[in-house]
Amino acid sequence: MTMNNYPHPIIAREGWPFLAISLVLAIAVTVWCAAWATPLWIIFIFVLQFFRDPARVIPQEAGLVLSACDGRVIKVERTQDPYAEREAILVSVFMNVFNVHSNRSPADGIVKKVQYFPGKFVNADLDKASTHNERNAMVLTTADGQTITCVQVAGLIARRVLCYIKEGDKLARGQRYGFIRFGSRVDIYLPLTATVKVAIGDKVSATSTILAKL
Q1: pLDDT averaged over the chain?
Q2: What is the distance between the alpha carbons of residues 152 and 185, in angstroms, rounded to a whole number?
Q3: CA within 20 to 30 Å of 14's CA: 104, 144, 194, 211, which one?
Q4: Residue 102 confidence (pLDDT) above 50
C-alpha cells in the first residue's frame, strides 16, 4: 500500500473561500458582540470539517476498484449503464454532510468520456437522483480494457458538481479528480464479471476501501 498526497492536503482548495468568509464573519461579530458570535463559530467549524481532504492509503493489488468517495453503500444491483451503454453492476455510495466530499479515481485508467448533465436537486438517497439530478459522468478504461463508469450526483443540499478531468486524461487509482459540495452521492458502474466486496449499509472511505475486484 502507498499513501497519496494532494496539492492541498488537509483542507480542500474548494473550501478556502467559504472558510475565509465564515472566519471573517465570526471574528467580526465576536469583536462587536461576543454573545452573538457562537452560531457563527459553529458554522465555521462545520465548514472546516466539511472541506477536510486527508491523504489516504492506496491498496496496490492489481485489478482493484476503490471507492471514489466516503459514505454509505445504498445500492448494489445489476442494471443498465446509460453512459457506457452496457449491462453493469451498480454500486451507489451516499455522502452526508459530515463525510469528506473530495472524489478520487476508483482505478488506474484512461478517461474515455466525460459528460455533464444539468438537473434537479432531489434527495441523493432516492433512486431517481441517479437520472434526475445534476450529475457528471466519467467513463474510465483500464489497461486490460475493462470499463468503469463513475458518476458524481448532486443532492438536495449540494448545488455544485466539480470535475477537473477531461477525455484522454490518464488517472491513477486514488487520484483526486473532483468535488461535490454539501451532500450527494457517487454511482459506480462495474463490469458484470467484477466481484463486489461491499454490501448495502457498509460504510466506505474514498481510496482506502475496496469496492470490487475485476
Answers
A1: 85
A2: 6
A3: 211
A4: yes
Q: Are strands 71-81 and 176-180 parallel, antiparallel or unpaired?
A: unpaired
pLDDT digits (tens, 9 = 90+) for 122-158: 444 445 445 566 889 999 999 899 999 999 987 665 5
DSSP 209: S
**In this predicted model, which residue has the larger pLDDT, 4 or 133?**
133
Active-site annotation holder among 22, 102, 105, 184: 184
C-alpha cell at 159: 448545488
The closest of 155, 172, 159 to 207, measured between CA atoms, is: 172
DSSP 32-46: H-GGG-HHHHHHHHH
CA distance 14 to 25: 19
Residues 6+ apart with CB under 8 A from 57: 1, 2, 3, 207, 208
User: Residue 208 catalytic?
Assistant: no
Please give the helix or strand (H or E) that residue 75 lies within, else none: strand 71-81
pLDDT tens profile 155-205: 665 557 888 999 999 999 999 998 887 668 899 999 999 999 999 999 999
Which three three-digit cell numbers place residue 10?
Answer: 488537509
CB 186 within 8 A of CB 94: no
Beta-carbon contacts of 185 under 8 Å, excluding residues fewer than 6 positions away, are 71, 74, 92, 93, 94, 95, 124, 125, 129, 130, 153, 155
